[in-house]
Design a protein that fits this description.
By secondary structure, the protein is an alpha+beta fold. Helices cover 49% and strands 10% of the residues. The protein contains 8 helices and 5 strands. It has a 5-stranded mixed beta sheet. Strand 2, helix 2 (64-79) and strand 3 form a beta-alpha-beta unit.
Amino acid sequence: MNTSRVRQAWICGLGLCAALLSQVVMAQPVQYEAGVHYQELAQPLPDLDPDRIEVVELFWYGCPECYDLLPASQIWESSYRTTDMDFSRAPLVWNKAMEAHARIYLTADVMGLLPVVPKSGWEVKRSIHNDAFEAIHEQGKALVEMDEIWALFEATGVTRDAFDLAWNSAEVTSRLDELKKLSTAPEIGSLPALLLHGRYVIRYNAAVKSQEDLYKVLNFLIARIRDAQRAQG
């Protein structure tokens, strides 16, 4: 593993969170515009809970920018996600390699290998999610052959029978089919992306050029949704 690169990424993540904290205390927040800084889904997803704010990180294990975003994402998850939010991750599927990688994530989730991160403040939890990114971007593995994929799970201590059962389960297959449908949304288009409240997509573009920009737009929209919920009682 390239430890200097990983260390640099975590330092960048800490710098990002400091920038977000400075935004929170600003008296006049920046205004971000639909179609410029974020996109609105033409077909919004149904609310799982209209009283909560849903944030979904869209990713692919083979995406370098997704890997670069991982430290900031995990720091935000543990430190800046608030108690009125539901945060999750969803791998997108545009080709066969992405399908294999999505199944890795879903299988790990079904097997309980993706620990829920409590609101504990700066407590980042590593998991097989980190290992999959590092296998591709640090160790040069493709993670499309079953031997490489199984090695990831074997390292966690699970049995091959349990892995095979989860990998081929109806739950994983059903969730994979749903992700394939989500992946066709034209407003997403590139990764990484943040899907907020089933309506708004934030991703890098000419107006959102950095991790800091990405999370500033996210915070702006979260505040707007929260204000709307309060106004509705």
